[in-house]
Design brief:
70% helix, 161 residues, Arc Repressor Mutant, subunit A, 0% strand, 2 domains
């Protein structure tokens, strides 16, 4: 990978990586730091990256940088001790987007990450497994569990509309 491809990678993928990180850590400044660290790591390995694998390498690096950041911040969410009222909503909302973001924020970090990679960024199960370092079957399990939680949290569409 050369300098031109690196610059093209910055132009094409910086917004997508930033959105992915921002949706996970919900802090604009910290998300910018994680993205910048990811591009710095990519720059340091520019000679070893295969040109066709730049996007995958970038998202993998960003994902692992974000995980390191989350571990440092000790921002782990444990829903096992949460009561029913913590993950169900009975409020009437007119903004479905707000409800969805609230529901996604209540997911454990790994489920939130794989769902965002799959549903927001459009990665395949295999690509998500490569980015996260999980097995493909484990990625499917996390996505399934996350979607079931979201379904239960959001509830019936009649409540939302």
């Amino acid at each position: 990978m050369g300098i031109e491809e690196f610059n093209r990678c910055v132009d094409e993928y910086s917004d997508g990586v930033y959105r992915f990180i921002l949706k996970n850590i919900r802090d604009e400044e910290k998300a910018r730091d994680v993205v910048q660290d990811s591009f710095e790591k990519m720059w340091k390995k520019i000679e070893t990256i295969t040109p066709g694998k730049a996007k995958s390498y970038l998202f993998s690096t960003a994902y692992h940088t974000m995980i390191d950041f989350i571990r440092k911040e000790k921002a782990k969410v444990d829903l096992s001790c949460a009561g029913e009222e913590m993950y169900s909503s009975t409020n009437q909302y007119s903004d479905l987007n707000e409800v969805l973001h609230e529901a996604i924020s209540k997911l454990p970090a790994i489920q939130r990450s794989v769902i965002l990679l799959r549903d927001y960024e459009g990665y395949s199960y295999d690509e998500i497994a490569g980015i996260t370092g999980l097995g493909e079957s484990q990625v499917k399990v996390y996505i399934y569990r996350g979607r079931m939680f979201l379904k239960k949290y959001i509830g019936r569409m009649e409540v939302l509309i």
